[in-house]
Amino acid sequence: MEPLRRLCLCLCLPLLLPPPAAPAPVPGPGPNWAACRSLSRELSGLVATLEEPHGVLEETHLSEEDPKNWPPRIRCSDACDPSTLDTNNTRCLHRILQGLQHYRDLLSSDIFTARRLPRLEAALEQLLGLVQPEPARPPRRPMARSETWAQPLLQRLALQRLQSFSTIMSRVFTHSAGPR
Asked: pLDDT of 24-47, one tens digit each?
């Protein structure tokens, strides 16, 4: 009786376990690292040279109220560290792609209606094209409307975040484009 009970337990136990996680995507050949490095440096430079049109905001330090509505950040768990990038860069590239798509959508939203940044938008589009080719790229997502009075503040916050994101992204591409 005991062996039969063990057999039943062994057969039923897998039903109690959570379903297996989706398999990790198989890394492809990857983007043109040198071109990504060059464009990400250009993007960082463009963001760094933007001047704040509202002088009073220069000294303002903003914190977001609702971080869910802001772009993904590159975190330690995204495996963008040099040792992981050398073996599997899929997760890191996915996070970079999410950020690039979010900033592309943000720059074309109503927040930037009065202050279009075409060179920044073009650099983001080029970088997106290198990280993920056009056919696989998701369409633009509309952003939530913002109050007109809040747009200068939101622009500043978005550009600060983009500068931080582009700096880290540039480091990732610089490492990946380096000699092996």
From this structure: 444 456 788 889 999 999 999 998
